[in-house]
Amino acid sequence: MFFCPACNTSHGITLGRNGWSWNENEDKPTFNPSLYSVAGELKCHCFVRDGRIEYLTDSTHDLRGKSVELPDWPF
Ligand SMILES: [Zn+2]
């Protein structure tokens, strides 16, 4: 799981077969494919690459089209 500052919550993915691939880098993780999360009106579509979250423009939050450093886990 990682914390998403756009949604102000966590997103979780499943690694491995039928799930996401991970570059096994804990400091600068890359996950494939992209992650798409829908919570009511809020749509969040992003890639996590080299420790950064890259939000795609079909997201509906303020960070769409931007990329941010993957934040520390706040919980
Ligand atoms: Zn999000």
Structural write-up:
This protein is an all-beta fold and 75 residues long. It has one domain (2-69). Helix content is 0%, strand content 43%. It contains no helices and seven strands. It has strands at 2-4, 9-11, 21-22, 31-39, 42-49, 52-55, 67-69. Strands 3-4-5-6-7 form a five-stranded antiparallel sheet, with no helix packed on it. It has a two-stranded antiparallel sheet with strand order 1-2. The radius of gyration is 12 Å and the shape is globular. Zinc ion binds next to loops.
Question: What is the fold's blueprint, element by element?
Answer:
Elements: E1 2-4, E2 9-11, E3 21-22, E4 31-39, E5 42-49, E6 52-55, E7 67-69
Antiparallel strand pairs: 1-2, 3-4, 4-5, 5-6, 6-7
The chain binds zinc ion.
Zinc ion (ZN) binds near residues 6 and 11.
Strand order across the largest sheet:
3-4-5-6-7
- Compressed to H and E, one letter per element, the order equals EEEEEEE
Instruction: Please give the radius of gyration in angstroms.
Output: 12 Å
Bound molecules: zinc ion
Structural class: mainly beta
Oligomeric state of shown chains:
single chain
Total strand count, please? 7
Instruction: Give a quick account of the main beta sheet: strands, pairing sense, barrel closure.
Output: 5 strands, antiparallel
Please report the number of helical segments: 0
Low-confidence stretches: none
> End-to-end span in angstroms?
11 Å
What's the rounded overall pLDDT mean?
96
Overall outline: globular
Percentage of residues in strands: 35-45%
Number of domains: 1
The percent of residues in helical segments reads: under 10%
